[in-house]
Structure formats: structure tokens, C-alpha cells
Amino acid sequence: MDNGLEGLSSTALDALKNADLVIGATRVLELFADSIHAAESKDLTGQLSQVPEWINSALAKQQKVLVLATGDPLCHGIASFLSKKLGTEKLDILPNISSVQLAFASIGLAWQDAKICSVHNKDAGEWQTGAGTEHGFYALLQAINQHDKLAILTSPENNPARIARMLLMENMADLFSMVVAENLLCADEKIFQDISIAALAEQPFNGNDVVILTRIQARQPELIFGYADDAFKQRKPDKGLITKREVRAVSLARMQLTAQSTVWDIGAGSGSVGIEAAKLCSEGHVYAVEKNVADFAIANENARVFALHNYTLIENKAPEGMADWPAPDAVFIGGSGGELAELIKLCLGKLQNNGCLVMNFVTLENLSTALEVLKQSRANWDITQLQASRSQPILHMNRMRAENPVWIVCAKKIEENGVSA
Fold first, then answer.
1. Handedness of CA 147, 150, 153, 154 (dihedral sign)
2. 191 and 9 in contact (C-beta within 8 Å)?
3. Tens of pLDDT along 217-256?
4. Long-range contacts of 135-139, Cβ-Cβ distance < 8 Å, separation of 24 or more
5. Distances (CA, A) of 55 to 22, 97, 240
6. What is the pTM of this model?
7. HEC-encoded secondary structure of 110-134
8. What gap in Å lies between CA 266 and CA 288, rounded to an integer?
């Protein structure tokens, strides 16, 4: 604990007194410097990967090793790392009150329903709108989007001010109240409360902080699948570029999505397929491309209305602009801009193992092109022809009005001896 010996149990005090080797971060070793006498001490700051080797070496010499960590070492702490490297049978874990407990206690707020997150790792850099899973704050943003109450462990670089700036950039600052608890149990303990997120974005912090985010109004249950066509803005009366709900539902089902999937949406149109994929892949990301200026604007507006934070849309003609996209788990092609054969080859080559390519066609010519490419690619593929009819009032009765038939072509590349074919 940050209050030194005062915060240690008698068992922990005995372990410290009898240790031959004490390992800890710089701040913790300094906190207990007066209590480490005959024991050797090693600073793990910047050398975490070497800690298991230090421990094994000491144990081989029949030495007693103590690793100092603040709070509960099993809550985003070093104990999980050591368990994986050394095995739990070698560890005797003595948890203390965690900084999360202390932070919530400092403001008298229950925390059994809080999502606990950590950005106490390498410098993630400032958040940029549209950043994907490669950014160190990406998982945090998705957690913030999905929860009403969060506790966030920070670091000197990834500090509360940087989190506040991300909330401002994502237009989420008005949705949350933010409390920062700094240097808990220390003489210079500070609680930043009843301060706007905009003000906290400019506040200096030392990184020894816990951030508590509480949504001002609890999220309401919302639909994640099966949106009506009129839930999306679309270009009318020109073409009404949208994948209709019945076709969209089957196409999404054939993409075999998980919460973590990375998805490509090529020829986004109104964005309906990519947007519903983003709702389903709450911990993943959707990358979409649309070449038509008007459709790009509509898809962008739809993404904004759906308040997505895991969706990136670019205005370009595929495959231009896609070079830096991460390998997808699923690809949807709704429009090809005359580059269908090239796009199919590219997507099959980029797909992750067991990834799915799903394509929608309304013309025989595009269907024929796709099948020729698939036959040459040795991919497993199949076709579903889907034609839905919707009821329409006529006088005091109803009749059925047929929608255009659509071919849904699904492909999965074959794995041969563990190598993609």
C-alpha cells in the first residue's frame, strides 16, 4: 500500500522481514527502503520480462523472494503475469486493499457494478478519432461505450487528462461525470470531483491515479440486429442504395461474426451492413469504403446517428485506401466499382484463417464474374438466391409485393496443411 508499513498485515510484514530478495517498482522500493536491510533489492521498472528469471535464480539458491506490489496484485497486477510464467504453485499471494476499492470509498460510491479497466501500460499516444484496435486506448473506448460505471487504472503517460481528451474527441464528455483519485493514502492525496471533463483534460496528473467514470443517464436497451430499412438514411429516389433487411440479416449470419471480429465493408452504400456488423462486433472494428460522394456522406451520417466508436469509413474506390487495414475475419462486398475480380482475389488473400467473404449480387454478369474467380481460387463457396416479398395495403386488404431477387455468394478459403490455399 502507498501508506507503507502501516498498510501491511502481520503476515506481509513477516515476509518482508525474512526476504532474501525484494523485487518491486521504483516507487514501491523507495516506499519500503527503510525496511529492506539485509535483503537484496531489484527494481523491475522497465525490466518486467526479467522478473521470472530473477525469481527462479533466487529459488535455485534456496532464497526467499518477495515481490512488492500495491493493492491487489491479481487486479490488473503483476501476480497474473507471474502465475503464467512460474505457475501458481510457486506463488503465495497476499492481497491488500486495491486502489479501486479506495477510490470508490473516497467518494462513497458502490462499485460492484463497475467495469474495471487498465491503461497502465506503454504510452498509447493521444487518441485520434477513427483509430482502430492497434491503439492502446481502443479497448478502453469500447468499454466506456458499453458500460455505465467504470474504474480505470492509469499511468504517467496514459493519464486521466488523456482519457478526458479522448472523451471530448468522441463527443462523449457530456455523457459522463469523471472523478480522479490521485496518490491514495499518501500525504498529498487528491480527489478531483465535480470538475468538468473539459477542465480535467487540461489538468496535470502524475499517473498514480484511478479514474471513475459514471454515466449521467443509464444506457437504455437498444437493438443490435435486424434494423428496419428506414432506420438508415439512404439516397432516394435515385437508387435507394441499401441492403434490404432480409438480405442484410442473411448476409450478416453468413459472415460468422464474433464480438471481436474485424470486418471489411466494401461498397458501403448507406452503410447498413457495416453498421449492423459494428453493433454485433462490439469489441471488434469495421472498416468501410465507399466511392460515391453522396453515399459516403449518408453512410457517415448513419454511423454518427448510431453513435459508433468501432467504425471507420473512408471515401475512396476500393481497393485504394485499404492497404493499412488489418486482416479481416469477415468481408462484405456490396459494390465493386468495376473491380470485382481484383477485389475477390485481394479479400481471399487477406482473410484470416476460416474467415468469410460474403457478396451480394443483383446482376447475372457480376454473379458470373464472381463464380469464375472463385473456381480458380480453390475456395469453398456456395450461393443462396433470396427473394422476399413484403405485404402492402390495397384498399381494406393486403397484397404481397416482391423485392428484387439477390444472390448471396459466400466463400471461405481452404486450409491445406495449415497454410492458406
1. positive
2. no
3. 999 998 999 999 999 998 876 556 689 999 999 999 999 9
4. 137/162, 137/163, 137/166, 138/285, 139/283
5. 10, 25, 65
6. 0.83
7. CCCCCEEEECCCCCCCCCCCCCCCC
8. 6
